[in-house]
Specification:
Elements: H1 7-12, H2 17-27, H3 38-51, H4 56-65, H5 67-70, H6 80-89, H7 93-106, E1 118-128, E2 143-152, E3 157-165, H8 170-174, E4 184-186, H9 194-202, E5 206-210, E6 218-223, E7 231-238, E8 242-244, E9 247-248, E10 255-261, E11 267-272, H10 279-287, H11 290-302, H12 313-337, H13 343-353, H14 374-383
Parallel strand pairs: 1-4, 4-5
Antiparallel strand pairs: 1-2, 2-3, 5-11, 6-7, 7-10, 8-9, 10-11
């Protein structure tokens, strides 16, 4: 009978192992390590992410129950202390670089098909508790981290991530993000900084955000709003000369204010440096920002990123990187199998069939019963 790999084995085949080993060698994470290499650590963390394991104890127990099939992958169920030590001490840059490599594989050839790149920027808070969480001190008894994400809504994937303590302002983390020349960046009021916006101007980027209520538009000229739309007004003017009393505004060029009415009846004052595109296009771009919120929901509820199996800063960085890698691999699996089911259903099917010997393209189908031998056929005939 033809051998069939487990679903987990099929997913591991999508990992660029040669690049991974190169990253391990460059960071030296396997130096003086006799067993439980960085490769073993990654496989265990990826298994935990796909299986929905929420603790070191659960990772150990679930992997131990599948040891006979994990044996063919060259990995053993880890001891809790071994995995905890690896997450605390090994360089998280190995996993971050692997995320970037897997992303580059997913985006190969896509840019040629796409007109204008759109980038959504936002962050999500992650609760931490227990020993090892002191690095993420937020208040007297609250600890938390933030995952800062740049998301490509056309590709349906995150393209950049960073992790900070929860008390780090979003704009502080955003200033470390790379800026892609010519792209369109969409973000909310947490990133209200004229100096940062000027960097987009220098890179010939289009930005779409919101006005603060107390920011006036000076020397404004009104333009007719498109009839029969939710656009209330469309104006072009200038931002104030200073953002605060002692901060000069480096943006001297004109900007545009578009007031739009949303489904709830509330009005939004949108700000953009695009003076030519239709007002409805700008409003639709800001509306796309909701897609990054849906991505955060998938990461938290479906990939269980709200539960951390390690609470040190390094362990949290590693687990978030592995969670994003798992997301990319599942997206890649979805494209390869060309199944009709959506992403959330795919995640559930992978979790239910993770260690089953089944083709990844047949996750919905039950395995047929094994053929009966001659003795079983004779007994079946006698009893019929």
């Amino acid at each position: 009978m033809r051998h069939i790999n487990t679903v987990f084995h099929e997913i591991l085949k999508l990992v660029p192992w040669a690049d991974f080993e190169k990253f391990v060698a460059e960071q030296g994470t396997d130096e003086a390590v006799r067993s439980f290499k960085t490769r073993d650590q990654f496989i265990c963390l990826l298994f935990a992410q796909l299986a929905g394991a929420a603790s070191l104890r659960e990772v150990e127990a679930v992997m131990s129950s599948h040891q006979s099939r994990l044996y063919h992958l060259g990995v053993e169920a880890p001891k809790r202390s071994t995995l905890a030590d690896a997450n605390r001490t090994r360089d998280s840059r190995v996993f971050t670089r692997l995320f970037e490599r897997v992303l580059s594989m997913a985006t190969r050839g896509f840019r040629r098909k796409m007109g204008d790149a759109v980038r959504l920027i936002d962050s999500t808070s992650l609760h931490l508790a227990g020993a090892g969480s002191r690095w993420a001190h937020f208040s007297s008894d609250v600890f938390g981290a933030k995952a800062h994400i740049v998301y490509d809504p056309d590709l349906g994937r995150p393209i950049y991530h960073a992790v900070t303590a929860a008390n780090v302002n979003d704009i502080t983390a955003a200033k470390q993000m790379p800026i892609e020349a010519g792209a369109t960046y969409v973000f909310d009021l947490a990133y209200y900084d004229f100096g940062w916006w000027a960097r987009f101007e220098e890179a010939c980027c289009r930005l779409v955000t919101r006005f603060k209520a107390n920011t006036p538009l000076l020397e404004a000229r009104d333009f007719p709003a498109p009839p029969g739309s939710d656009i209330i007004s469309d104006r072009i003017g200038f931002l104030p000369a200073r953002q605060c009393n002692n901060r000069k505004n480096p943006i001297q060029s004109a900007v545009r204010e578009i007031v739009v009415k949303i489904e709830t009846g509330k009005t939004l004052r949108l700000l953009t440096n695009d003076l030519d595109s239709p007002a409805q296009e700008i409003a639709d771009l800001y509306k796309r920002r909701w897609q990054i919120e849906l991505f955060f929901r998938v990461m938290k509820q479906t990939l269980k990123i709200t539960k951390f199996i390690g609470r040190s800063e390094n362990a949290v960085r590693i687990q978030i990187a592995v969670a994003l890698i798992a997301f990319l691999l599942l997206r890649q699996l979805q494209q390869i199998t060309k199944e009709k089911h959506g992403f959330l259903e795919l995640v559930r099917l992978v979790r239910a069939n993770l260690m089953h010997r089944k083709a990844a393209s047949r996750l919905r189908q039950t395995n047929p019963p094994p053929p009966l031998d001659s003795r079983q056929l004779e007994l079946q005939w006698q009893t019929s």
